[in-house]
């Protein structure tokens, strides 16, 4: 069986391997072990007690194969509710340059530095073994976050945001960064990502010029990638679209990658989740559903077959109930696949 649970310090080496071998950049998971350990410790503190939430929590989940104990993927949620740490993006807009005297009316695309998305909960830290892209395990590690939100809905914002990796070349360089950000920091895109992962994206963003960026002043290569996601992010992009996320006018401040947003209550997995009583038993047929327990510190989510019992009762294999730490006779959230 595959299940999703909170990451622990025992998973450090596995997360390092996922980050190192991942096909996309993950700025929220540093490659440096000491900083990665700090991120996991931050997650552990966030999972300790839901009563002391301050808005800066970070939850990191892992996908585990229960037969082998192998960690196959990870995903995270950053609550991002701290006003002292603004969440910066560029908003793509338009200015009109006009002159009645010369009969000129020219629309010009402009990028405005903004922190309007501060307060949105951020889906982040997604990584999975390449051979599992597009599989049910791929869906599980991403969608389990929505089940956690459904179980503990009072904790989370009504608005969600995801920053997808922008277009990069085979060497991992960003045309947008090379045309714009590099002028102010004298570092390549990989180095900028390293600083974001090991320090803070806020400190880099606050050093960006606050003035609007006229898109026409960027190189043609940089203009061409604004608001696009890299091919290596196409699987997660497709999943997010199925979940109800939509393209926004915002782009990432470093690589101009696509930013998608959604209302939490309109996300498919979240809105389709409902509660029923689960009983253990022997299940050989039935439809697959996402099921999660109601534990905060010991959260579990998995993909299981459910069969109808009497009334509002569903039956689950005993072994799966044990893995997911479900109590027979209790109510739990489940959501269709």
Structural features, described:
By secondary structure, this protein is α+β, with helices and mostly antiparallel strands. The chain folds into 2 domains: 2-90 and 114-269, Aminopeptidase, CATH 3.40.630.30; 273-336, Barwin-like endoglucanases (Beta Barrel). The protein has helices at 12-21, 33-48, 136-151, 175-179, 182-185, 189-198, 201-205, 220-225, 234-243, 268-271, 318-323, and strands spanning 2-6, 58-65, 71-78, 89-99, 104-114, 121-128, 159-163, 213-214, 246-251, 258-263, 274-281, 287-292, 301-308, 313-317, 330-336. The chain has a 5-stranded mixed β-barrel. β6 (121-128), α3 and β7 form a beta-alpha-beta unit. The two termini are 16 Å apart.
Give the key terms:
elongated, 337 residues, Aminopeptidase, Barwin-like endoglucanases, alpha+beta, 5-stranded mixed β-barrel
Strand order across the largest sheet: 11-14-13-12-15
Q: Any guess at the CATH architecture of the largest domain?
A: 3-Layer(aba) Sandwich
What is the strand content? 25-35%
Percentage of residues assigned to helices: 25-40%
* CATH fold assignment of the largest domain: Aminopeptidase
Question: pLDDT under 50 segments (min length 5)?
Answer: none
In whole angstroms, the N-to-C terminal distance is 16 Å
If you average the pLDDT, what whole number results?
90
Spatial extent as radius of gyration: 22 Å
- What is the assigned CATH homologous superfamily of the largest domain? Gcn5-related N-acetyltransferase (GNAT)
The DSSP helix count reads 11
CATH class of the largest domain: Alpha Beta
User: The biggest beta sheet, please?
Assistant: 5 strands, mixed, barrel
How many structural domains can be distinguished in the coordinates?
2
- Secondary-structure element order, as H and E? EHHEEEEEHEHHHHEHHEEHEEEEHE
* Helical/strand content category: alpha+beta
Count all strands and give the number.
15
Shape, principal axes of CA atoms: elongated
